[in-house]
Here is the input.
Amino acid sequence: MSDIETLENSIMVEIDGAEDENALEAVRVAALGKKGSISAQMKTLGKMSPEERHTMGPLLNGLKARATEAINTRKDVLKRAGIEMRLASERVDVTLPVRPNPLEVGRIHPISQVMDEITAIFSDMGFSVAEGPDIETDYYNFTALNFPEGHPAREMHDTFFFNSDKNGERRVLRTHTSPVQIRTMEVQKPPIRIVIPGKTYRQDSDATHSAMFHQLEGLVIDEKTNIANLKWTLLEFCKAFFEVDNIDLRFRPSFFPFTEPSLEVDIKCDRSGAEVKFGQGEDWMEILGSGMVHPNVLRGAGLDPDVYQGFAWGIGIDRIAMLKYGMPDLRPFFEADQRWINHYGFRPLDMPTLFGGLSG
Here is the structure.
């Protein structure tokens, strides 16, 4: 076997043994590069006699052509194999379900939804939204609301107290959103029509109570405000919120230090089934407390009770959310269980309106 045949066999074995395009390129450079084995043989032609060149030239050119063709053929094979391997590794199972749109997966918490519903109702009535701090002074949480020092009514609220400051004063986690009523009356001249949604805190925890809960207060102050306005406002709110055309309310005498007279409000309902139904039945359920603002509260906020009068009410947002949407236990509201949110949550971007529907 001649040297050329030996060289050709060696190169073809290396070409066939190349497992990828990088290895094949190394074989090409080793055979056909400037310092390759075939190129080295081609350089010897210049030192040969004409007769030898006439014989060796065609042999070397043929070797070069066959090696180039073999390399190109092997390259095509490796390229197809690479594509097939990539397709296999990146294969998509088109039978799998499509991932849902994030807007379809996300859910609005029922508390946020109910706050938006309440805001929509009272905004339509001409109320604005007011806010205040969660950490309050004793004055705004109790004294300014007609809770005198040492008064037994202070014991109605299981209050979270902070440690005393250097002046001996103790701040509290507000037990109701009523302090915002005082803060508003101090800086805003009547007429006043506000609702105050927010967090409140009391040491209480069971299926219908939690240490942190949400409350909404309402306040109206004007020169001619009366109890008939209070009743109409609460009746229209309940009709809109529970989305029932006919609602019966019952007002019972009660006691709150900051209102006089004070009234508990019951709503007529049917509790015979698994869910409470409003606008029907013969049962009654308490839903909120209300009353005419006490003259001492007006006077303490800098308003003359002989000129101005008003009414206020307070609603537990968590409680009415449970009533409207059939939630049996308050505690899951705060447990961040994704399964519970998926079941009771609301679709994002569906903002409640009186015209488009509150609950969608």
Notes: Residues 3-89 form one domain.
